[in-house]
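Section 5.1 Outputs to date
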Amino acid sequence: MFNQHPVFIGISYIGAFSYSFLLNGWEKTLKQSFLLTLPGLLIVALLNPMFNHYGVTMLYYVKSSGNWITLEALVYGVVLGAVMFVVIQWFSCYNKVMTTDKFIYLFGRIIPALSLILSMALRFVPRFTAQLKVIRSGQKAMGRDVSEGSLFARIRHGLNMLSILVTWALENAIETSDSMRSRGYGLKGRTAFSIYHFTRKDKYVLGMMIGLSAIFTGGCIKGAAYASYDPRILLAGFTIQGYAAPVSVSPLLALLTYLCFAAFCFLPVLLDVTETIRFSYSRRKETADLEMTYQKNLPDSGTGRNRQMNLVEIKDFGFSYPESSRKVLEHVNLNIKEGTLNVIMGRSGCGKSTLLRQLKSVLAPAGEKEGEILYRNIPLRDTDHRTQSQEIGFVMQNPDNQIVTDKVWHELAFGLESLGYDNATIRLRVAEMASYFGIQKWFYKNVSELSGGQKTASKPGFRDGHAPVFTDPGRANLPVGSHCSLRFSGDREED
C-alpha cells in the first residue's frame, strides 16, 4: 500500500476500489473516489513540480521563478497523490469492516471485563451526547444558553448543564445496575460471547495470507519493488528511456511478486463474494428449520396439568417503605397461572411498580413486608439469584436504562453470558430469539439506532415458554376513579 512502484500502486488501488464497491455500494465509492479524493491527488501532483525541481527531463520553464518543471518531479507528484488516494480508499474499507464487535471479540477472550466496559462505554457516550442536546435545548428556552451572555454567565450556565447531566447519569445508572443484576450479572462463571469464532477455514485463509505476504515481501527485498524518480525514473522490471533499474531482478521473480501482491489485495473481495453466496443459501435453509422447530415446540394451549399450575402466588402481601407509617401495598392476593396474560392498572403512585418489583428479589425495594410470595409453589425468598435471573424476566419503564451493551446481538446475549452458558448454546438461543421475534433486520445495529418499541422488543424477556415476564409500563393512560386500585385480570379487584 505504501510502495511507490506504479505496478504495486495500481494493483492496490484496484483491490481497494473493488472491496469498497462491495462494502459501500457503487454510489458512495464513486463519490468518495472521484469527488473527494481525486481532487486531492491532482493538487499534490501539480504542486510537487512547482516546489521540487529535481530530474533531468525538462518540460517547461517558469520565467517568474527561474525554475524548470521536470517530468520526474511531475511523475513523483502523481505517485505521491496516488499513494494517498490508495491509503484513504483502504482505510474507508477498514472503518467499515473493523466494527466494535470485532474489537470486543479480540479483547473479550483475554480480558472479558474490558470487553464489557468497552461495549458499555460505546453504548453510553451517544446517550450522554443526545441527553446533553436535550438539556441544552431546555436551558436555552429558559434563557440560559452557553453561547449568550457574559463570560461568567456562560460558565455558570455550562456548569449548570453539567450538573444536570451528571445527576441524570447517576439516576439512570441505578436502573442500569438493577437491570444487570436482574439478568444475572455478578454470578460466578460468566462467559464472553461473540458472534465471531475462529474456524478451520479461517486458519487456511490466515495461512494463505502469511504465505502470500512472505513471497511478495521476499520479492520486494530482492528488489522487485525498486522505484526511483531522482534524477531520472528507474523502475524494477522495466526499461525507461533506455535505462534499467540498477537492481538486477529477473522478470520471473518480478512477475511472481506482482501476482502474489495482487492475490493478497483481492483476497478480501473473493472472501466477501463467496461468503455472501453461502450466507444467502444457509439463511434460507436455517430460517425454514427454525420455523419448523418452533411449530413443534410451541407451548401447549390446552388445559393440561401444567396450565393449571400457579406460576406466581401472592398471599395477603403488604409493604411499606422504611420510616413510613403508610403502607404502599396492603392485603394483596394474586394468582398468576402459566400461559396467562395479567394486567395491572392504576393511577400513578398506587403501587404498581412496587408490586412488580417484589416479584424479583434483586429489584425489590427495602422496606417492611407482610405476607408471602411463592414462585412455582416455593417461597420467592428461597429461590436463588441464578434461578430468578434465568426464569423471571422483567422489562422496566425506560428500556434505555435497561440496555447495557451497544449492539442488539450483544444485548440479547448479555443475560446468557451472565448465567455462564457456552458460546454454542448462546449462539443457538440468540438466533432463535431473533428469528422468533423477527428482529433479524436490526440484529447487527447499534441500540442507539432503534426506536423505543424496538428497544423493548430486543429485551430477552423469557427463557422458555412457561417462564413469566413482568413489564412495568408506568402510568397507564386509562380513566380511573379517585381511589387507588390494583386490577388483576381474571381476579377480583383489590382496593
